[in-house]
Amino acid sequence: MKGFSKILRKTDTKKRLSVPIRALKSLPPFKLGSHAVEFEATDEKGETWAFQCSTRKRGPYRKPVLTRGWVAFVKSKKLQIGDKVRFVKYKNRATATISYKVRAEKEIRIFGVIFGYAPI
């Protein structure tokens, strides 16, 4: 099981999710010569979401982002700046199939201090 989580910033809630470069191993592999890969992830309610992860075509820094499907997910979950999203890659040992989960968590503040995160 591999995964990553990220606390959302303004761009993450409005346009695309900037994926940490180290998190690429938690997402599907890119085909040789490709700069984009599509995959599906299931949320905590069992709903399937289709996403596209893409990287820059040139340059030394790949800068991965989730684009297609991301804004719809954010709107559906009513995510805001400061909320957290978590992607997890699972491998079924019996069948060797790979699946992905996506979890959204709302920021909990008490008297202006971040107390933690609660699953949506």
What does this protein structure show overall?
There is one protein chain. The protein is mainly β and 120 residues long. It is built from two helices and eight strands, in the order E-H-E-E-E-E-H-E-E-E. It has helices spanning 10-14, 70-77, and strands spanning 2-7, 17-18, 36-42, 48-54, 65-66, 84-91, 98-110, 113-119.
> Spatial order of the strands in the main sheet?
1-6-7-8
Rg, please?
A: 15 Å
Task: Give the overall pLDDT as a whole number.
Answer: 91
Instruction: Using the alpha-carbon principal axes, give the shape.
Output: globular
- Binned, the helix content reads 10-25%
Assembly type of the shown chains?
A: single chain
Number of helices: 2
Structural class: mainly beta
Strand content: 35-45%
How many β-strands, per DSSP?
8
Sketch the topology as an H/E string, one letter per element. EHEEEEHEEE
Poorly predicted ranges (pLDDT <50, ≥5 residues)?
none
For the report, how would you describe the main beta sheet?
Answer: 4 strands, antiparallel
Distance between the termini: 22 Å
List the helices and strands and how they pair.
Elements: E1 2-7, H1 10-14, E2 17-18, E3 36-42, E4 48-54, E5 65-66, H2 70-77, E6 84-91, E7 98-110, E8 113-119
Antiparallel strand pairs: 1-6, 2-5, 3-4, 4-5, 6-7, 7-8
GO molecular function, one term: DNA-binding transcription factor activity
Protein name: AUXIN RESPONSE FACTOR 4-RELATED
Pfam family, one: B3
